[in-house]
Design goal:
By secondary structure, this protein is α+β, with helices and mostly antiparallel strands. 33% of the residues lie in helices and 27% in strands.
Length: 81
């Protein structure tokens, strides 16, 4: 049994904004085939849609540390006067 594109890690679904809400469309971008496909289509390039929350959290922590350091530098420059 082939799996549908909408559950693939290579697939990004398109959304449309109507009355301030984002609604899913019935198509999207397949990054493996570099083509616009329907959500219910299948192909041989199907991959697991894996989300690594730890990596995302680590990246956020590094970004916040960099922002805090930048804010400290700005504070020091403003208080020199």
């Amino acid at each position: 049994m082939k799996k549908e594109c909408e559950n693939c890690g290579n697939f990004t679904q398109f959304y449309s904004k109507i009355d301030g809400q984002y609604l899913q469309t019935s198509c999207g971008q397949c990054w493996a085939n570099k083509d616009i496909t329907g959500c219910k289509e299948t192909c041989e390039n199907w991959e697991v849609n894996f989300v690594n929350n730890n990596r995302t959290q680590d990246e956020l922590i590094k970004a916040f540390d960099a922002m805090i350091a930048s804010i400290g530098v700005i504070k020091d420059k403003l208080t020199e006067k």
